[in-house]
Amino acid sequence: MLQMFHSTIAYAVLALLLVSTINAFMGISAKRNFTKKDRSLALVALIFSHIQLVVGLALWFNSPVGKAALGQMSNPALRLTAMEHPLINIIALVLITIGWSKHKKEESSNGKFKKIAYLYAIGLVLILSRIPWNLWFPAS
Ligand code: HEM
Ligand code: HEM
Question: What is the Cα 10 distance to its own chain's centre?
Answer without folding.
Answer: 9
